Amino acid sequence: MIALKKPEILILGAGYGGLMTAVNLQKKLGVDEAHITIINKHDYHYQSTWLHEGAAGTIHQDQIRIPIKDVITQHKVKFLKDTVIEIRPNEKQVILENNKLTYDYLVIGLGFEPETFGIKGLKEHALFIRSINSVRFIREHIEYCFAAYNNESEKRDELLTIVVGGAGFTGIELLGELANRIPELCREFDIDRRKVRLICVEAAPTALPGFNPALVEYAMNQLERKGIEFKIGTAIKECTETSIIVAKDENVEEIKAATVIWAAGVRGNSIVEKSGFEAMRGRVKVNSDLRAPGYDHVFIIGDCALVINEEIDRPYPPTAQIAIQMAETCADNLVALVRGKDNLKEFVPDIKGTVCSLGHDDAMGVVFGEKQLYGAQASIMKKVIDNRYLWKLGGLSLVLKKGKLNFF
Ligand SMILES: Cc1cc2nc3c(=O)[nH]c(=O)nc-3n(C[C@H](O)[C@H](O)[C@H](O)COP(=O)(O)OP(=O)(O)OC[C@H]3O[C@@H](n4cnc5c(N)ncnc54)[C@H](O)[C@@H]3O)c2cc1C
Prior knowledge:
Layout: E1 8-12, H1 16-28, E2 35-40, E3 44-46, H2 51-56, H3 61-64, E4 65-67, E5 77-81, E6 84-88, E7 93-96, E8 100-102, E9 105-108, E10 112-114, H4 122-125, E11 127-128, H5 132-149, E12 161-165, H6 169-189, E13 197-202, H7 213-225, E14 228-232, E15 235-239, E16 243-248, E17 251-256, E18 259-262, E19 266-268, H8 270-274, E20 284-285, E21 291-292, E22 295-300, E23 305-306, E24 308-309, E25 314-315, H9 320-338, E26 353-357, E27 363-367, E28 371-374, H10 375-402
Parallel strand pairs: 1-2, 1-9, 2-5, 9-22, 11-18, 12-13, 12-18, 13-14, 20-23
Antiparallel strand pairs: 3-4, 6-7, 7-8, 10-19, 15-16, 16-17, 21-22, 24-25, 26-27, 27-28
Helix pairs in contact: 1-9
């Protein structure tokens, strides 16, 4: 009897989407059914949803990252540390920095990149929350500025001015962490708290667009109470090495700042469009079974995929929640294809709610449909959501190792 060749499944990216696809596949497929390889540029998975905490320095980056080999079953899934350079879907090939691989089925889960909308100087001078390396740099940069302040003969106030671009979900979560961290830094570096400015600039007419106005008001009040200055309806026009230039109506202002963190926009990984997939800001409008239009052997999930919410005729915002749910559907569909079936599942998002943290001890959000939560209750819920993901990924031992177990 001739042994049939096992199909090669390549998973690109070990983020929420990619890693959860691998974990689901290792549970659902037998060793002799497929070769599964997951490729990632680092040998760890990081939780993007905690990156703002690493940037502010309220948690250490090692709590945010998890070695990939700790969660995959290595005789079922092979891990390859490499960087994807290009995908050639017509040749079923992936070009890596150090290798060239072919596949029968491909899963693209390469995540997000910052989107700067062409604003002058942002790419060159602003800092971005995008990876462990970038947030470690932000934390060190802020500490350096605080240390430098008392070491220079001329006290430059801009060293103590931090600007956050964007009052969306990521910007607000980052401000919550910074608001808690600044008093600690002031104590550590002998700085008067009143000297420190923490400014949020948002071009839209409100913070947290899309959130219920009562929740927005709560978040802004809580953050203003901790000394954050909001400039809403104000656009960043330019970022220089030492300042930002903002404009509201006709009024243009230059704010001197040594730290500018851009948290106002993300797009899908640019490798996707460079590889010839039709994409809008790096996001491909996938078929209902999560395959790329015209490429039946390619699944695209997470922040590189675009799915329309038919109720409002707009795309679902890219979230970890959706990436994890996509991973389940994608794994089920891969199992079906490997077993020669063609009844693929449709991806139907099940939005369980959104909780936005305002530091480790405060939060607000909506859960179970319409229930609004504020303060400690919301903060506990946020930690339960975070721990639930760890549970799905690596069970109790991972929750105990990396989870947020301090609920107050
Ligand atoms: C600060 C912050 C807070 C957030 N909070 C929430 C929240 O509370 N709830 C929520 O649901 N969502 C939240 N999000 C959004 C969420 O993090 C993303 O939607 C989610 O990470 C997308 O998952 P993904 O699998 O598509 O990609 P990612 O998790 O970004 O993973 C992509 C992976 O691909 C790897 N990679 C990238 N390029 C290459 C390459 N060329 N070669 C090899 N590997 C590569 C990366 O290293 C990474 O491991 C937040 C995002 C941020 C930044």
